[in-house]
């Protein structure tokens, strides 16, 4: 997600396009999740195909070795497929606010990191991978995510200490997903994973952190179920 960077030099018109595109995407996604049924199924199918297509293009640019390329593509099938399957599971078998909450958490991380990075700047996290991301941006994202999950928890089930801790932890996961895609793009020699979304690049550029958070959350749920935790 490029919002976690600090694009100070971006022109105002580009920021407007990015904002409008982001609002439209969120409205479409929230509407599909809320409506459910065939609309939701079609939406998830399209997103999955789009993400796998962009992942495969990046994978082809990572290495000329055909065996390594195939392994990367298979890894993408597992990574993206696991995340989108978990979306379907949450929509069908959990309270809808949980799925919307995960999406909101990633948006909160993205927003908090963007504004904290622009406001405070400071040392870079990994300039060789993503030159604009700062430690202050990471802390801002963690804070925003912790606050969002705490407010959501208070409004739905009541506040508990694990909520801000989980929010901050998943913000780090979202940042890691962002860095992972940035590393893939840098190694493949491309700026964006695609050009589908004006001002944002491709679907994977927009959903890199969300995919990582969904996978980690799914693993946590499976682990808790296997250990008999509620």
TrEMBL record:
Transmembrane among keywords: yes
Amino-acid biosynthesis keyword on record: no
A Pfam family the protein falls into: CTP_transf_1
Compartments (UniProt record): Cell membrane
Domain of life from the UniProt record: Bacteria
Main localization (coarse): membrane
Biological or metabolic pathway of the protein: Phospholipid metabolism; CDP-diacylglycerol biosynthesis; CDP-diacylglycerol from sn-glycerol 3-phosphate: step 3/3; Lipid metabolism
Catalytic activity: a 1,2-diacyl-sn-glycero-3-phosphate + CTP + H(+) = a CDP-1,2-diacyl-sn-glycerol + diphosphate
MF (Gene Ontology): phosphatidate cytidylyltransferase activity
Membrane-spanning parts: 20-49, 70-90, 96-116, 137-154, 209-228
Gene Ontology CC annotations of this record: plasma membrane
Key words of the record: Cell membrane, Lipid biosynthesis, Lipid metabolism, Membrane, Nucleotidyltransferase, Phospholipid biosynthesis, Phospholipid metabolism, Transferase, Transmembrane, Transmembrane helix
E.C. designation(s): 2.7.7.41
Entries under PANTHER family matching the protein: PHOSPHATIDATE CYTIDYLYLTRANSFERASE (PTHR46382)
Family the entry assigns: Belongs to the CDS family.
Protein name as annotated: Phosphatidate cytidylyltransferase
UniProt source species: Sphingorhabdus contaminans
Lineage, broadest ranks: Bacteria, Pseudomonadati, Pseudomonadota, Alphaproteobacteria, Sphingomonadales
């Amino acid at each position: 997600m490029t919002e976690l960077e600090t694009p100070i030099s971006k022109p105002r018109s580009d920021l407007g396009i990015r904002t409008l595109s982001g609002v439209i995407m969120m409205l479409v996604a929230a509407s599909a999740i809320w409506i459910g049924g065939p609309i939701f199924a079609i939406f998830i199918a399209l997103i999955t195909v789009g993400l796998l297509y962009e992942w495969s293009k990046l994978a082809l640019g990572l290495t000329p070795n055909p065996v390594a390329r195939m392994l990367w593509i298979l890894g993408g099938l597992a990574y993206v497929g696991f995340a989108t399957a978990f979306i379907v599971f949450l929509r069908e078998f959990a309270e809808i606010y949980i799925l919307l909450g995960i999406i909101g958490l990633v948006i909160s991380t993205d927003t908090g990191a963007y504004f904290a990075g622009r406001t405070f700047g400071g040392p870079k996290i990994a300039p060789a991978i993503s030159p604009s991301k700062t430690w202050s941006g990471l802390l801002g994202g963690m804070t925003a995510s912790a606050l969002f999950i705490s407010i959501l928890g208070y409004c739905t089930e009541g506040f508990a200490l694990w909520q801000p801790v989980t929010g901050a932890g998943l913000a780090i996961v979202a940042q890691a997903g962002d860095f992972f895609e940035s590393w893939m793009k840098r190694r493949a020699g491309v700026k964006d994973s695609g050009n589908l979304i004006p001002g944002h690049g491709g679907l994977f550029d927009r959903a890199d952190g969300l995919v990582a958070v969904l996978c980690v959350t799914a693993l946590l749920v499976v682990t808790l179920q296997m250990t008999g935790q509620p």
